Amino acid sequence: MSDLCAIDAISQAGLLRRREVSATELITAHIERINQVDQSVNALVTRCFDRALQQAAAADTALAAGGETLGLLHGLPAAHKDLVETAGVRTTYGSLMFADNVPDRDALIVSRMSGAGAISLGKTNTPEFGAGSHTVNQVFGATRNPYDLSRSAGGSSGGAAAALAARMICLADGSDLGGSLRNPASFCNIAGFRPSTGRVPAWSVLNAWSQLPVLGPMARTTADLALQMRAIAGPDARAPLSIEESSAVFAKPLERDFQDVRVAWSRNLGGLPVDRRVSATLEAQRHVFAQMGMALEEIEPDLSDADEIFRVLRAHNFELNYGGLLAAKRDQLKDTVIWNIEEGARLTGPQIGRAEVLRTDLYHRVRRFMENYAFLLAPVVQVLPFDVQQPYVTEIEGQPMQTYLDWMRSCYFITVTGLPAISIPCGFSPEGLPVGLQIVGRHGDDFCVLQLAHAF
What we know:
The protein has 15 helices and 17 strands. It is α+β, with helices and mostly antiparallel strands. The protein has one domain (1-301, 366-456): Amidase signature (AS) enzymes (Alpha-Beta Complex).
């Protein structure tokens, strides 16, 4: 039974489809796995095992009666990030003030996954309101990296990444504003995909027109990501930024010939400090793209102003979403959340307008750059997984980090371009710590990003 947890979602789905294993057996195996390992990892912080077993039994009954699977994700064990609403299941947002919050409805991504037949085993840990790329909060504590329990699992989808890496589930959802799908994927040696804004629509949200935050899938393989995208992507009239293209695009074959396709290889996205062990691990895999016949050119994109754009728009987003909480319950918020809200409150109209103008200029610079290259390859994270007791990274290669955001720039610089990006496993440091590679595609080319990730 334990072997069931070791295989990927595509393989598990095949066993279910061929009736070589039942959904009840599969869910039971994963529950046993969680009970074995999660006391050390602390990834799945709210559990709904009884409900999952009931859903598994219903799935088995339906399959036996009709001879058809319930959906694309029939019987597959999954979990949802503790930032997305789950009807009847506690959703805390990693905050003490919501420690007992039980929503009465599902977020759209949750209803799409359950509608496709996925069975949720619970909620995955996240930092308070998803603020920061280290998963720790006052409600549940820290999530630890399965590759080294003394290290961070990243964030803010750190619970999801750790649960996947420790084989507690085979599919998870996550969100990404400044790297929260990609950063923990890199730290935990799994795959995390930041799709284009609107590819996986979200509602209800306070600011339906915000373009920086996205929802997306996390899994152990690119094929599993594509499978999940078939279930969660596609337009919804309640989300005004929805991309109208059907999710059926992700059902196409992932295999592709990359002969003579031009790609840009970036060492540091234009001068960011990168831990030399991260750089060495990535450099050791450059030959793979040459073996695929790709034309690889070392070049840095011009991402000037990306830092100002992100910090202004992020602060504006934090004040919009959490400003009321700061006024009412300041003592229950962590210091970095308070700082980000107050940064937003200090913004002026001209500052926000300037950030939008700069972002438009950046879009066109990057658009012209990507006319010459089908993909950009770059570090996901500038550092290796760090001490789980450390709140955030304060120094990289001798360069001090001034705020809790600074060390995440290799992810959030890509966020403000609006381009789809994925983190995929790329190797290990001499200490045995995972390192991910970031593959960035052209505007709207989400499926092509998955194809290259699959090939790699």
